[in-house]
Amino acid sequence: MGTNNIHAEMEAMGRKALDASRSLARLTAKGRDNALSAMASAIEKARDAIAEANAKDVAAARKAGLKESMVDRLTLTPARFKAMVAGVRDVAALPDPLRRTSRPVVRPSGIRIVRQPVPIGVIAIIFESRPNVTADAAALCVKSGNAVILRGGKEAFATNSAIAAAMADGLASAGLPPDAVQLVRTTDHAAVNELVALEGLVDLVIPRGGESLIRAVVEHARVPVLKHYNGICHIFVDESADAKAALRIIGNAKCQRPSACNAVETVLVHSAIAKAFIPRLGKECAKWGVEVFADEKALAIGKGCGFKAASEESWRREYLGLAMSLAVVDGVEAAIDHINRYGSHHSDAILTRDENAAALFTRDVDSAAVYVNASTRFTDGGEFGFGCEMGISTDKIHARGPVGIKELTSYKYVVKGQDSIR
Amino acid sequence: MGTNNIHAEMEAMGRKALDASRSLARLTAKGRDNALSAMASAIEKARDAIAEANAKDVAAARKAGLKESMVDRLTLTPARFKAMVAGVRDVAALPDPLRRTSRPVVRPSGIRIVRQPVPIGVIAIIFESRPNVTADAAALCVKSGNAVILRGGKEAFATNSAIAAAMADGLASAGLPPDAVQLVRTTDHAAVNELVALEGLVDLVIPRGGESLIRAVVEHARVPVLKHYNGICHIFVDESADAKAALRIIGNAKCQRPSACNAVETVLVHSAIAKAFIPRLGKECAKWGVEVFADEKALAIGKGCGFKAASEESWRREYLGLAMSLAVVDGVEAAIDHINRYGSHHSDAILTRDENAAALFTRDVDSAAVYVNASTRFTDGGEFGFGCEMGISTDKIHARGPVGIKELTSYKYVVKGQDSIR
Residue A264 domain-assigned? Predict the structure, then answer.
């Protein structure tokens, strides 16, 4: 497809999505939940077609020599398929994010103002390999009354197409416009650049993927982008921390799921306890199989622990695996400075028994989630009680931290007058 | 200054602003209010220097042949100067936008989550001619704990510089970093492009000005932009409207301040009452001195009213003056379609005695403020009870409608565990 054709095709998708979003916005909560049920049932019914499409994608990925971990992410096992369908039904069961109208305010002029939640409109979601995101993201958008344009990774194109087709069938069977959920039908990268420039048609772009994907989207975007940069998360072990608890929390934050964005990447240790704590941490890391990149002081204290030397670039490193950076700092202020300077404003924790240190840390660390005596791994829509999430925003605009269905809404002011004029 | 120098200078400003924002974020509400008082007093003290600078700008503008209306906007009369100082003090007197911490939620895992309002960080404001925006915008940012980088119109450069210098003096006298309020020190347009690309230093850009300014900012932005596109606002006169009230409301919405973004630009009339209403409206418009661009039906009905023929482009026209577009529509649905299609999603009103029509209109019109029996002119921070405003957002992300000090805040989650792990 030529660039002009892609532009025309993306614009046409945007217009259809806008029309569909008007219909969705008119639905009651029950209407939206029925749509989700119909989507779930339709995916279930299309099980064979989806499995076949997935087998094709997997075979092509193997043939192209993709890493086995990538092939695994791509594979829709029967268990994952079941979880995907259940996920759509779980979203339907969540409370309606559009129900809470504000209390009316009556102004001296006599006008009566109500702030009412409304869908954002049309959301474009750009994601990478895992095909279950297709159903997941669509469900969250429909639940909050938004039309969605999905653009998945090219490796999962056949699978995504089969899932999206099933969802469109489900919407149609519920009497709704199938264009409420559309998948971009080309793997050409130019389509992304066109999609994110559709001012007046697309209201929000959410890129879900690595940093290079997000940077490319931001560069071409003419519509707002909700950014989910990955996490460079810290744990600061304060002077007064309980050492045993600290080791357990660091182990959890690093090892429970090292590839998660809320896994810890850098541990900072208060200099007053470094000599006692660092050798114990070194021993645990060896047990966990965690490689440690340490600053000079930690390296000296942890002699014999097998630490490697950290470089300036270690402090900005997101390992996404069994490795971490380690530094000795002179106190809570130094820890805060380090975190604000090198972190990604995602999730950062202090382990301490000192309330003043905790208060300073939570006030001054400029991150979406700031923890006291807890693992950074809790930054998650499910753990926060949102039921589910679209991702974790590292932006400070619109939504910060876990993005649930409530974060996929906007609002409008409904103002009633008595033939009121200014 | 070469482009490289401008890049370096903007980056340096961004870094200073980021540092200052950390200090501001640590202040109590009282500390921020003291800063505002000090800024107001310093502006007052610099009255002569500011007046002198303004005289220079005004003389240069006259010499350059600027329109008298532009020269007027530029002129800081003694009354406007007084209002500017009072404005800063009024902002200080507003309630603290950072005070409302959410009720804690305790999750099954034992973690206790609080959502706490925090400043956004560093806000860049790009505006056009009126120099009082310099003080106004700075005050709103400081009140909400944000550092601000101001970039004003080049015609007001001397005036803005004098006001900004006074505010920095005020901040310093209150023991605060003067870099919390900085003015871009070059009129080179390249500075704007650099400023809006400062990812990691600038958290939000707010362009205040005409559409071309906003488009240019969006094109170069790499950080989020809160857009304040001007208003193509509508009034729909329904079948059941009270004609006398309708004429009064239209007159107010069009004539009370025609240059405002919430002034009405297009009036839609229900076909069932068009024959009775349009000639009366025509007569009033003639009295008000309002030029009318009418569609075929309205033109035929309003023969003798001196209407001109509307073209397709009339429906997207923001007159910002004593002119308006006029069309006959077949009912509330047709009115809604017209508004959603041609409007700018700013402020739109229905005049009706029919509750069903009002309900349909307020549900389906996709605008920041939707009115029943009131003038669109009420969309304003002051009228809404926000105390003041940075502008009116036509975006659906982050803030919609009037942007007050609350809309200049973000939030963070503060999570306390009991050595909690996942």
Answer: yes
Confidence of residue B23 (pLDDT cuts 50, 70, 90): very high
pLDDT-based confidence at residue B2 (cuts at 50, 70, 90): low
In a domain, B196, yes or no: yes
Q: In what order do the strands lie in the sheet with A409-420?
A: A105-106, A112-119, A409-420, B369-374, B347-351, B233-237, B264-270, B323-329, B291-294, B308-309
Full-prediction pTM beyond 0.90?
yes
Q: Which of A235, A228, A137 is nearest to A180 (CA)?
A: A137
User: What's the whole-number average pLDDT of chain B?
Assistant: 95
pLDDT given for residue B50 in this prediction: 98
Task: Give the mean pLDDT of B403-415.
Answer: 97
Question: DSSP assignment, residue B57?
Answer: H
Smallest CA–CA distance, residue B297 to chain A, in Å, is 27
CB nearest B396 (choices: A109, A400, A410): A410
The closest of B271, B273, B266, B267 to B330, measured between CA atoms, is: B271
Q: Rounded to the nearest 5°, which phi and psi values hold at B309?
A: -80, 130
Please report residues of A whose CB lies closer than 8 A to that of B206. none
Residue B419 has its nearest CB partner, among A248, A340, A413, at: A248
CB atoms within 10 A of CB B279: 15
In a domain, B392, yes or no: no
CB spacing of A372 vs B417 below 8 angstroms: yes
Mean pLDDT, range B81-108, rounded to an integer:
94
Q: Are residues A255 and A357 in the same domain?
A: yes
Query: What does the pLDDT look like over B100-137, one tens digit per residue?
Result: 888 999 999 999 999 999 999 999 999 987 898 999 99
Nearest to A375 among B105, B378, B422 (CB): B422
Instruction: Identify whether residues A96 and A163 lie together within a single domain.
Output: yes
Same domain, A82 and A194: yes
Residues A111 and A248 reside in one and the same domain: no
ipTM: 0.94
* Chain segment A275-288, per-residue pLDDT in tens: 999 999 999 999 99
Which of A367, A372, A417 lies closest to B373 in CB terms?
A417
Mind telling me how many Å the CA of B416 is from chain A's nearest CA? 5
Q: Which pLDDT does position A2 carry in this prediction?
A: 66
- Per-residue confidence (pLDDT) for residue B170, from 0 to 100: 98
Q: How many CA atoms lie within 13 Å of B234's alpha carbon, on the beta-carbon side?
A: 34
- Of B409, B345, B226, B208, nearest to A412 by C-alpha is B345
Q: Which residues of A touch B364 (CB under 8 A)?
A: 22, 25-26
Domain containing residue B93: 3-227+399-416
Contact B417 A384 (CB under 8 A): no
Region of residue A319 (phi > 0: left; psi between -120 and 50: alpha; otherwise: beta): alpha
| Count of the separate structural domains present in chain A | 2
Task: Work out the angle at residue B357's Cα, subtended by the Cα atoms of residues B355 and B358, and round it to the nearest 5 degrees.
Answer: 60
